[in-house]
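ESCALATION

Customer reports they have been waiting on this structure for their group meeting. Please prioritize. Original submission:
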Amino acid sequence: MKRLLVVLFVFALVVCSFSACKAQTKTEKNPQEDSVPKCDFEKHVIQNDACTLCGVKASTGLKFKLNKDGQSYTVTGMGSCKDTELIIPSVNAGKPVTEIGKKAFYEKAELTAVYVPENVTAIADNAFYMCRALSTVMLSETVETLGKDVFMHSININAVTVSPDNPAFSSDENGALYNKDKTKLILVPGTKAEFEIPASVTTLGNSCFGRSRVLTSIVIPETVTAMEDGVFNDCRVLQSMRIEAQLTEIPYMTFSLCEQLREIVLPETLTKIDKHAFDWCLQLQEIHLPESVVSIGYCAFRNCTSLWSVDLPKGLTELGESAFTSCEKLGKIEIPEAITDIPAGAFSDCNNLVKVVFPTKLTSIGDHAFFQCPRLENVVFPDTLTSIGRYAFYGSDCLGSLVFPASLKSIGANAFDSCHKLDSVVIPSNVESIGNRAFCDPMFNMNIFVEAESKPEGWETKWHYGQRVYWAGQWRYVNGVPKPKS
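Update from on-call: job pushed to the front of the queue and completed.
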């Protein structure tokens, strides 16, 4: 009996020990729970890949590539990492991480914050492109170079914080990013509805305000001497701009897609407006171009659909292709005397353009130059004109009659196609080539009077579309008006 009791007692002890062990296992803390951040991301103090305040550790699972030197790594992507607040490790497999690769975190919509650690010296092009949720960026003291468009389209960045020991970059209380001495503005947080450019800034960096959805007005102070490309590109709600700076150039895409921009005063020192500078400024109604401007680039004012008034400077020598394409409300344009060639598409799709004054030394009108300008009328060509390009006046419904100068040598295909009210054309004998359907009126209202006795060899067989053609000897002038002989 005693032996049985001893056995039962021992069994009971074993059962109790097992239960106690199991209970202890259930209540034991998961080691991962200690890694949960206990302070806001921007308050982390990272040393040796861990926060000294809360103990949170660097992100794991990131993708790396061994660099050519065999002694360091570049982080190239998220890999299996699921963190939304990213702390990039300074070391991988015992070697320093020295670079964030091109497009490493491209379109990572889940990222909300990132810490770039010691050892990283370079962040490559588009590294954090279109990280729409990214709001906090922290750069350590070792970051020396930033590639092109590193934070492009990451429009919700609220602040960039740079270590005060960084020798190349700095930040301020607004969370803006600068070079070390704050002479170049690199990035303004996209959440800032108001921003005053500091007096120390002399250069506005590439797309530094780009794609803001809250900035409505800005003043560029006189201390600024240069702007890089796309400074205000795609600032959709920017309405007014005052430029106090004595700038000589409005660079590539500076105000492109500023759809609400209504007014801007340009400096009198300006000499060049580069390509796409005001492209898609849908609300811009009028603009004064200083007389100092000598060059207007490709698509500079394309799709300024509300622009009704612009005076081209008398000293203008260069006009880019499609410079005023789709300026739907533009009613009149006088092309300066120094312009000898009107480029392709320069005024195409200007639906309300009624009058054009050509310079007296004009030699060529490019392809599609006045394509689909349905209200254009009373065109007078100068005596120096030698060529008219393809589709140059296609769809100019209000042209009533045309007399070409004796200097004209060529007329491109479809140049006067679908000009439904064009009823009279006089073609001089010097015209050597005419393209297919250059004169095409499906309504058959057009009379074509040709000074040549027969079709020259360089004219295409289908140079017109069934219009009535009168060759030399078949027509004459009556009171200055060409008429068929009876």
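Sent to customer with the following note: The helical segments are 2-27.
Escalation resolved.
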